[in-house]
Amino acid sequence: YSSDEVQYFAYLRSLWFDHDVSFVNEYRYFYEHGVARTPGFEATFLELSTPSGLRVNFGTIGSALMKTPFYGAADVAVRVIRASGGNIAADGFSQPYIMAVAYASAFYGFLALVLSAGLARQITGYGVAPALIVWAGTPLLFYMYAAPPYSHACSAFAVALFVTIWIHVRREWSGRGMAALGASAALMTMVREQDIFFALGPAVDLVWTL
Known about the structure:
Elements: H1 3-18, H2 24-32, H3 41-47, H4 62-83, H5 95-124, H6 128-137, H7 140-145, H8 152-169, H9 175-191, H10 200-209
């Protein structure tokens, strides 16, 4: 129902099927099917264009990259079903593709909780209870199951991974560890650009250590 969800999904579908970042067909599909009919959607995403002539996308590409294995598996399954006589559209929009995106968010949200439990256990001695509190007491539950096309569940995993690597790397600050920390920082920023602020913690920690 939201333009944000459409923008995140557009990256995934366009890269997998069209091998480009031209989103006009994805935007038009959701608009014509009554999914994205919020005020201003047509004016913003079907009429505006970038200097290169493409449609605008204010989302980030990271969650699409993370969900690609699930989306690709759905595409393979659809084509196998069609080869067996099934009648499911292999267009990237049909139910199996949407389900793959939803399952991906639930999966990454679960991994975020697993990593959070490990971090909490290192710090407090308790892991499961804090993770359950995070799951039930924050919007993570909502973004895992009620609004999975958003990037938030992937963001939770990327940030949890980043913090987990930080906790291990700060013991020695080795070159390999810092490279891993930098790669995870890049991933979490590609998922949600606001997450770059989490990098301030390790930056201050490193300066303090030096």
